[in-house]
Amino acid sequence: METTGPGRAIEVVPFHSHGELDGFVVFGRWPESTKEWAQLLSIAVRVASTPGLLPTSTIFVAREQLPADPGPGTVGLLVAEGTVSGRSAVEPGRFAGRQPCALLLLHPPSETIPSLPECRGAASGCVLLPGLPHLGLEHRAAWVEADSAGTVTAMASRIGIDPINHPDTAILAMLLAA
Hints:
The structure is a single chain. The chain has 178 residues and is α+β, with helices and mostly antiparallel strands. The protein contains 2 helices and 9 strands, in the order E-E-E-H-E-E-E-E-E-E-H. The protein has one domain. Helices cover 14% and strands 34% of the residues. A 9-stranded antiparallel sheet has the order 1-2-3-5-4-6-7-8-9, sandwiched between helices. Strand 1 and strand 2 (10-17) form a beta hairpin. 38% of the residues are buried. The mean pLDDT is 88.
């Protein structure tokens, strides 16, 4: 799966273990804009809409590390860090020491209320691109919903967001706060 933008394409390949989504390998380059991150998020949400692949709402973090056997053009990983709640929940402040360039929150169909009644089985997600507001760099975010056929049924992106105003961005911001 790939997204296009200026320059080389961004390719994204999901990986899993024991039938559960563990993350995505990113090839080519990292997204350079909010629009490109929204496109990458739409790919991730369409994967998350596969029944049973994502058991609960899960946090993914962008890492500029390479897998053990990287393919040509590999630039990094979006790795599942843990869940929103439960035994494997990611603790608040987890990323306060080293802020990642992006955090994603993916919700499986069982935890998504679709925006349209005919879209039962939809998954959803959010990407938060943390800024440094005190330096004039605003927070950015995008939200996507996709049905079980992979059709994107809702997409929005914003710049200059206050993370506390949306539940998904509030959770992601909490993980960044010290």
